[in-house]
Write a structure and sequence with these properties.
The protein has about 180 residues and is of the alpha+beta class. The protein has 2 domains: about 1-65; about 80-180, 2-Layer Sandwich (Alpha-Beta Plaits), CATH 3.30.70. It has 4 helices and 4 strands. The chain has a 4-stranded antiparallel β-sheet with strand order 1-2-4-3, covered by helices on one side.
């Protein structure tokens, strides 16, 4: 009988110990999962705050953009009513370089409907005559115009030798197209 009582107490002690251990491990798992969940929530909240800050910065940039910045962007394109000043600019290249610059043709190419990549453009054929330095400087100024330009079909020929290197006459022909701005 005495042993039965000890066995009963020992069994009860083992059962209580198992219950307490299982309760401990359950609570440990529960606390770890809650902690991980809280860390994930904080990370998500921090990323949302960062995204909202970026959106505010972008909105402020949009508010800070003024007419002056629009003029800078639109100045890189030939406006729909700006073709005449573009042609005058091309003709004035000769005044800056000392070469004889003439426009042999000017075409106003309309945009293609539905094609967002094609805004239309002004296409010109330019003929330049002068010394080597004047001809090359004219081509360089044409490439670096304050417009979005494309230069094609460049033909450079020596017209006459002259008495010295500096007096030789050169002829340059090229096609220049400038992208138009559609507003």
């Amino acid at each position: 009988m005495k042993h039965d009582r000890h066995i009963l107490l020992l069994s009860l002690a083992i059962a209580v110990t198992l219950f307490v251990c299982s309760l401990f491990f359950y609570m440990k798992y529960f606390v770890e999962s809650m902690t991980n969940s809280a860390v994930r929530s904080r990370a998500i909240a921090a990323s949302l705050v960062a995204i909202q800050d970026e959106e505010k910065k972008i909105k402020n940039l949009d508010k800070d953009a003024d007419d002056d910045s629009w003029k800078k962007v639109s100045g890189s394109f030939v406006g729909s009513d700006d073709s005449l000043s573009f042609i005058r600019y091309l003709e004035s290249l000769g005044d800056n370089t000392g070469a004889d610059v003439s426009l042999t043709s000017v075409d106003n190419i309309a945009p293609v409907d539905g094609d967002l990549a094609n805004n239309g453009y002004v296409s010109t054929k330019i003929s330049v005559r002068g010394s080597w330095q004047a001809v090359v400087k004219t081509l360089m100024l044409s490439e670096n115009m304050p417009y979005k330009v494309m230069i094609d079909n460049v033909q450079l020929t020596k017209v006459n030798d002259g008495k010295s290197k500096e007096s030789a006459l050169w002829s340059l022909n090229f096609d220049l197209s400038a992208v138009k701005l559609i507003q």
